[in-house]
Amino acid sequence: MEPLPETREALAEYMSLDSPDIDDLIRDLAQGAGELVPDLVGLSLGLDREGLTFTLVASGDGTALLDAAQYLDGGPCVEVTEGRAPVLEMDFADPLDEERWRLYAEVGAAAGVRSSLSLPIYLGDRLVGGLNLYAGSSEAFHGHHAELAALVSASTAEAVSNADLSFSSRSKAQAAPGILRERLEVETAIGLLAGLRGLELAEAEQRLDDAALRAGVDRAAVAHVLVRVLRQDP
């Protein structure tokens, strides 16, 4: 699992010089977690900034889009990273989990993800972010919470703490020329999201933009997943 190129580029100027290299960090986490959880399919580091969660780095497009689904409509990584829950494991086969975070569950199922685990990252006593792990089987994380939590070392916490990703700086770093070409699908996704949550179109568009920004992906990619998932509803 490799970090997204655009994520690496966007973060390069924000990481402090004495922080661990972001490539090495994500590879080490992926390797360690993969040894404990053979069905691991992706992971991301979430960053808490002023009560909002951003994706600091993700191991692939699918992982970042799962994060975006949570930013749109709620999910375990947001609950943990923003301090509303200590640790959350989600089994996508559990109807209660799917009812609580429906959009997240549907995007996860479409991506072949069957369970997730979100763990907090602390620097001393301060919550600075969260480690989000995604697996291809329902019980992949059972019995591994403590070992996976131990992977979140002081260096990881320091890297997360030192990242400075405001909405404006990340938006400039990730401007994508393909957005205009995908405008029709974006507008369709906005309409579907508005209908799903009873929002005004402008509010649905803002929610889509914010989710893409926080996940570190193009909003056209988020729109594509939304259209694919929501149009499957009966």
From TrEMBL:
Task: Using the record's annotation, list all stretches that form the GAF domain.
Answer: 21-170
Q: Name one Pfam family in it.
A: GAF_2
Q: Check the UniProt entry and state the signal peptide residues, or none.
A: none
Q: Supply the name of the protein.
A: GAF domain-containing protein
Q: Which organism is it from?
A: Nocardioides islandensis
